[in-house]
Design a protein that fits this description.
3 helices, alpha+beta, 6 strands, single chain, 6-stranded antiparallel barrel, globular, disordered N terminus
């Protein structure tokens, strides 16, 4: 008889935790966003200037998403859409060289990340292994520019 009290207490505690977790999962509803950072080199400096001008001309309250695509080893392109993109540009003054190093950070909405991030990463890994050319395309509004991927950081 004494065993029933502790067992019932453990069962009640376990049931309470399960119900609490189930409630929090239902309350969350959507998948959390994924943080992403891309570091690229852009040799098309005129293309970069056009893209940067489009960024500067966009109201802070309504930033456009940045489409980033990589060539896929199976054909076509694999694209992710970075929302709330933030751009940091570095221009190193080296005689005879015209390029810009750009770091883009932002978010992938959870459901979009679940759908598109793994195929995009597979394309990046194909670039890393030398199977595919290192070429990304950035699209922002009506402007597109080619970039060479240097780093990809993903966090959640």
């Amino acid at each position: 008889m004494r065993l029933i009290g502790p067992v019932a207490g453990v069962l009640a505690g376990t049931l309470a935790v399960v119900l609490l977790l189930a409630g929090s999962v239902q309350a969350a509803g959507a998948l959390p966003d994924v943080e992403i950072i891309l570091v690229v080199q852009i040799d098309d400096t005129l293309g970069w200037l056009a893209l940067h001008e489009a960024v500067l001309g966009t109201a802070r309250e309504s930033p456009k998403p940045l489409a980033v695509s990589a060539v896929s080893a199976t054909g076509g392109r694999r694209t992710i859409g970075i929302v709330q993109p933030r751009f940091d540009a570095q221009i190193y003054v080296t005689p005879g060289v015209r390029s810009v190093r750009v770091m883009v950070s932002g978010k992938l909405p959870g459901t979009d990340a679940l759908r598109s991030l793994t195929p995009f990463q597979a394309s990046v890994l194909a670039i890393q292994s030398g199977e595919m050319d290192n070429e990304l395309m950035f699209g922002y509004g009506l402007v597109a520019v080619r970039a060479e991927l240097l780093e990809l950081h993903i966090g959640r």
